[in-house]
Here is the input.
Amino acid sequence: MMTGRRQQHEAWMRRALEVSGTGPGDLGAVGPAGDAADRAREVAAEDVPVGAVIYGPDGTELATARNERERTGDPTAHAEVLALRRAASVVGAWRLTGCTLVVTLEPCTMCAGALVLARISTLVFGAWEPKTGAVGSLWDVVRDRRLNHRPEVYGGVLEAECAAALRAFFR
Ligand SMILES: [Zn+2]
Here is the structure.
């Protein structure tokens, strides 16, 4: 049975939300102090919960990632960049033509640039990010007419749910 594009995008966004986690509670209870694994969970819990999933041309899930900047201490460890790296490694090539990147928050300039470089064909994002968004809010990196590759963009998918998950983290 055929699923409409909108339903498909919403189902994929629910998966991205699941990947993002929604805060400390989702990472498991923190045990006795001093345990390295617990400390790692605590640090991971400090990461802004952004989730990304990449689907292949046939709709197969290729890779998932969560923002890991705090956990890894890597300024470039945004969910989208990690997901692009993982998907490229699964595919065995840097070119992700035909693939769809689904992310719970409007990508920043780095991630927007990275997904264009990876030749992602479709971008689906959830909440708008008026402070740093590079897919329409502050800049529009992915639809710049000077670029020879411009993905199709669907923004604001399950926007309320995605925004609520982020608000819960910052509260
Ligand atoms: Zn980013």
Remarks:
- Confidence is low (pLDDT under 50) at residues 23-31.
- The two ends are 41 Å apart (CA to CA).
